Amino acid sequence: MFFTQSLLIVLVCWHTTSALALSLPPQFKQKLWGNLHDPKEVDTKFTTRSLQKRAPVTVCPKKFIDTFPACNYNGEEAINAWIYPMARKIKDMSNQNKCDKICGSTDGFRWCYEASTEGKNCDTTADVVTIQGALKKAFAQRKYWVCQKECFRMSHGGTWRGTLSIGRNETWDENFYCGAGIRDLMFKFYGLGKCISGGNDDL
């Protein structure tokens, strides 16, 4: 009996509070309920951003290696160690909305990365691990052979374009252009399925 009375009191209070809340002006409803959201509401902006971040990055080689050239350099260990820092640099430039070129060298090979755009912005919603996974997949597909200067074109569905060149110190070709102004469709084999799409799942 006591339990039944208590339950009735709770239900009456709950209905009274709900009715009171419905009759209150909006500013008082906010104070009463705080920042609670209708569970049926969907944050479409957040959902869109999340999906964009998870979308794969497309990487297209300027040259397609059919038969891997004979050279005594297999850069798997060095390249795997370099991929995350490179992805971090790419994302840092994106966060600054910066169209620029950076170059460096590590463990016997040289590299350059240039961010450009086919629109107004030089940024991408792709996160670091998505970029990292795409690069890893691209190099793994080529068996990590870096005998000559290679060039890769990156995109992520928007206007951002990234061009990444990498080669050994002794075979680096300054005349081999890899940078802004090279359009996706100019890449040999672009329409023949030689581009890869990679991301988080490729790590």
Order of neighbouring strands in the sheet with most strands: 2-3-5-4-1-6
Question: Helicity range of the residues?
Answer: 25-40%
| Secondary-structure-derived class | alpha+beta
Q: What's the pLDDT, averaged over the residues?
A: 75
Please report the number of helical segments: 5
The number of domains = 2
| Beta strand % | 15-25%
Distance between the termini: 62 Å
DSSP summary, beta strand count: 6
What global shape is seen?
Answer: globular
**Spans of 5+ residues with little confidence (pLDDT < 50)?**
2-22, 28-49, 188-192
Spell out the helices and strands N to C: HHHEHEEHEEE
Pfam families: DUF6736
InterPro entries: CSS2_C (IPR046624)
Protein name: Secreted protein CSS2 C-terminal domain-containing protein
Signal peptide: 1-19
Task: List the main descriptive attributes of the protein structure presented here.
single chain; 203 residues; 6-stranded antiparallel beta sheet; 5 helices; 6 strands; alpha+beta
General description of the model:
This protein has 203 residues and is α+β, with helices and mostly antiparallel strands. It has helices at 2-23, 26-33, 44-54, 76-95, 128-141; strands at residues 57-61, 101-106, 109-117, 150-155, 160-168, 196-198. It has two domains: 2-36; 57-202, no CATH class. Helix content is 37%, strand content 19%. A six-stranded antiparallel β-sheet has the order 2-3-5-4-1-6. Helix 4 runs antiparallel to helix 5. This is Secreted protein CSS2 C-terminal domain-containing protein. Residues 47-177 form the Secreted protein CSS2 C-terminal domain.
